[in-house]
């Protein structure tokens, strides 16, 4: 029995569960989606909040440039390139998207090399700003460079930051927290890669390893932080600061698309394919995109076949009250950044009428896609980062979804698809070679 019901009862009410429990790749397009003008109110945040987050990151750019030499060239702005991938698209054969295919290279963001640099850095910086203002180190319009001075480091050294992570969020929180001088602890789940733990420890971060999965690591980290009044816990399941930090990506994407001559409107729809773990990163980005582009943008979330947490939560309406393990799924996947058994209830509920669809992808498929991307575009990603690639094919294969959006062949041909690459540039070469070998096998 699963939550008092038989599996047959669950499948009768929610047919996609049959494919999910069997580990088959599947897609589900959300019938609850409504116009953005109506659904954005579900989030509890708006454009003013997003602009405030953007302004905070701009305000801290000089400090980031001082703290991290690799950000000097951009003046402390953390941003990734948007690139065309025509050879990869062509090599997908029957699964090639109708329209143009682009890749957003958050995989190559400076310092921590993943999408988590956006939200993670933002939350740590906001915490630092809050403490510094309370201590009188900076005023409302004060110079943020003061936070690199000894007085600020002494202040931050009396405070702690903790986070639970499968890897990439811990990397971004840990590196930023430690560089500012916070006592920083990262609780790493069983899926976390050894090289990520080593990089954190080399930066002076305390790494606590857990034999259990992401949920257990978060729970212990949250409990330990609650016992320390000076500790700030970064909660990927519930944090609105993380969410807003991720959402700033939409404002940065807008001029990039314009510079490439990409129109986004009803006749030129934009489809964004986002790898999804607990949901904070893709949820924040989708929220920002809906604020910017409204009903002209359509977001799809991609999850491993072993970890379809968000799909299960939204499909059933149970959100964080259900976990993949409840349905006999292992939550074991090579896509470590997506190895989450229970989704964010905050994101699931807030975005339940804004995200067009969800699909799953098997590890073997991820490896094949990684190898294909390397051969065609010379781009190296980690498995979780390529999860969005099957999204365009699911759209083509679903006539009901296309009819709902009035996606005629002409409109599909004018569409743009963005694969959001979430990590990979810092993967050690021997590990990357293993990924690529698995994909060529």
From TrEMBL:
Alphabetical keyword list: Lyase, Pyridoxal phosphate
Any GO BP annotation: D-serine catabolic process
N6-(pyridoxal phosphate)lysine found at: 116
Gene3D superfamilies cross-referenced by the UniProt entry: 3.40.50.1100
Pfam families listed in its UniProt record: PALP
Segments forming a coiled coil: none
Coiled coil found in the keyword field: no
Key word Lyase present: yes
Catalytic activity: D-serine = pyruvate + NH4(+)
Domain Tryptophan synthase beta chain-like PALP: 76-388
Main EC class the enzyme belongs to: lyase
Cofactor: pyridoxal 5'-phosphate
GO function terms (MF aspect): D-serine ammonia-lyase activity; hydro-lyase activity; pyridoxal phosphate binding
EC number: 4.3.1.18
Family annotation (InterPro entries): D_Ser_am_lyase, Ser/Thr_Dehydratase, Ser/Thr_deHydtase_PyrdxlP-BS, TrpB-like_PALP, TrpB-like_PALP_sf
Family per similarity comment: Belongs to the serine/threonine dehydratase family. DsdA subfamily.
HAMAP family to which the protein is assigned, alphabetical: D_Ser_dehydrat
Protein name per UniProt: Probable D-serine dehydratase
Species this chain originates from: Prosthecodimorpha staleyi
């Amino acid at each position: 029995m699963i939550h008092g019901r038989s599996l047959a009862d669950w499948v009768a009410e929610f047919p996609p569960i049959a494919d999910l429990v069997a580990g088959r790749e599947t897609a589900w397009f959300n019938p609850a989606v409504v116009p953005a003008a109506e659904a954005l109110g579900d989030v509890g945040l708006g454009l003013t909040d997003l602009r405030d987050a953007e302004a905070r990151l701009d305000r801290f750019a000089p400090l980031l440039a001082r703290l991290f030499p690799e950000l000097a060239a951009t003046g402390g702005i953390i941003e990734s390139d948007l690139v065309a991938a025509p050879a990869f698209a062509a090599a997908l054969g029957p699964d090639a998207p109708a329209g143009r295919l682009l890749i957003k290279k958050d995989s190559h963001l400076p310092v921590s090399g993943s999408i988590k640099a956006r939200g993670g850095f933002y939350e740590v910086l906001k915490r630092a700003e809050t403490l510094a203002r309370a201590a009188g180190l900076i005023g409302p319009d004060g110079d943020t460079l003061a936070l690199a001075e000894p007085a600020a480091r002494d202040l931050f050294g009396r405070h702690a930051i903790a986070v639970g992570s499968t890897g990439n969020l811990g990397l971004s929180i840990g590196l930023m927290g430690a560089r500012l001088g916070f006592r920083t602890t990262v609780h790493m789940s069983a899926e976390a890669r050894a090289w990520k733990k080593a990089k954190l420890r080399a930066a002076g971060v305390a790494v606590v390893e857990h034999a259990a999965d992401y949920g257990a690591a978060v729970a212990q980290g949250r409990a330990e932080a609650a016992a320390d009044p000076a500790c700030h816990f970064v909660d990927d399941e519930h944090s609105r600061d993380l969410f807003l930090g991720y959402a700033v990506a939409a404002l940065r994407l807008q001029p990039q698309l314009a510079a490439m001559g990409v129109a986004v409107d009803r006749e030129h729809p934009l489809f964004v394919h986002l790898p999804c773990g607990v949901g904070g990163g893709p949820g924040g980005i989708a929220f920002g995109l809906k604020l910017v582009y409204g009903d002209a943008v359509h977001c799809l979330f991609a999850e491993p076949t072993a970890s379809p947490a968000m799909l299960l939560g939204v499909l059933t309406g149970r959100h964080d009250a259900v976990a993949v393990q409840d349905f006999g799924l292992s939550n074991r996947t090579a896509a470590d950044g997506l190895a989450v058994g229970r989704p964010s209830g905050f994101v699931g509920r807030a975005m339940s009428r804004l995200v067009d669809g969800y699909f799953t992808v098997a590890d073997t498929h991820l490896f094949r896609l990684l190898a294909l991307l390397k051969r065609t575009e010379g781009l190296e990603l980690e498995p979780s980062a390529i999860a969005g690639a099957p999204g365009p094919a699911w759209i083509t294969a679903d006539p009901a979804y296309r009819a709902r959006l009035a996606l005629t062949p002409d409109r599909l041909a004018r569409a743009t698809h963005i694969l959001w690459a979430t990590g990979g540039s810092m993967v050690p070469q021997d590990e990357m070679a293993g990924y690529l070998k698995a994909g060529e096998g």
